[in-house]
């Protein structure tokens, strides 16, 4: 996840595993989805090993570690169990995310400002295994500055509020918050990624923001893949974000 003029697409395959876990079957296999995504132009593969194992399992992460041609972005909560697992698999990228057991999905960003010492220790520990650590945070100046202070080289701005906005004013306000967050992150010297809730109808405005390094997208890709196949879904999204980033 290095900064460049070309926006990158990280494909999150969690919800391929959601479908598998719904019936306890061996299919669909998120590993196959990852390989198809790479063939269709994904720049990286994102997986979130949740504490409750509702979708991705350890088995998926271990297999992916062996077969990915691109790179893994491993999303994890800041727990001792996850820290030890990350040390075992040494992913290229790690994104620290907040987790609560009952949430439907990741509802907000990590409160870095409210727990700087704890997050700094986690960033230091995970950097020692050679992973580039990013922090999944809200587009909030306080959190962005704290992310720089704790030594994370990268942040991922949570785009969920933008994705959930319903009125044109709300959408414009939330988009502006992301734009301001990107600029603030770049001024702090951070690599700035973004993601959550992005889909084919809302992604272009975010992809057009100058300086964003990578978008991580999952749920919408898996949903669209039902109709066009996983490779088609990824290729369509990649074309959309590259075109938007050129303007
Ligand atoms: C951290 C993040 O935004 C995504 O990885 C998201 O967590 C996907 O998984 P869930 O839908 O289970 O939250
Ligand atoms: N970090 C965000 C991500 O990986 C994908 O989130 P979503 O597109 O599944 O909402």
UniProtKB/TrEMBL annotation:
Family named by the database record: Belongs to the PNP synthase family.
Residues that hold 1-deoxy-D-xylulose 5-phosphate according to the record: 14-15, 50, 55, 105
Binding site for 3-amino-2-oxopropyl phosphate: 12, 23, 197, 218-219
Site (Transition state stabilizer): 156
Pathway the protein contributes to: Cofactor biosynthesis; pyridoxine 5'-phosphate biosynthesis; pyridoxine 5'-phosphate from D-erythrose 4-phosphate: step 5/5
Alphabetical list of InterPro entries matching this protein: Aldolase_TIM, PyrdxlP_synth_PdxJ, Pyridoxine-5'_phos_synth
Swiss-Prot/TrEMBL catalytic activity: 3-amino-2-oxopropyl phosphate + 1-deoxy-D-xylulose 5-phosphate = pyridoxine 5'-phosphate + phosphate + 2 H2O + H(+)
Catalytic activity, EC: 2.6.99.2
Natural source organism: Pseudomonas lactis
Function: Catalyzes the complicated ring closure reaction between the two acyclic compounds 1-deoxy-D-xylulose-5-phosphate (DXP) and 3-amino-2-oxopropyl phosphate (1-amino-acetone-3-phosphate or AAP) to form pyridoxine 5'-phosphate (PNP) and inorganic phosphate.
Major subcellular site: cytoplasm
EC main group: transferase
Subunit description: Homooctamer; tetramer of dimers.
GO cellular component, one term: cytosol
One BP annotation, GO: pyridoxine biosynthetic process
Keywords: Cytoplasm, Pyridoxine biosynthesis, Transferase
Gene responsible for this protein: pdxJ
UniProt cross-references to CDD domains, sorted A to Z: PNPsynthase (cd00003)
Subcellular location(s) of the protein: Cytoplasm
Name the UniProt record assigns to this protein: Pyridoxine 5'-phosphate synthase
GO MF annotation list: pyridoxine 5'-phosphate synthase activity
Source domain of life: Bacteria
Active site: 48, 75, 196
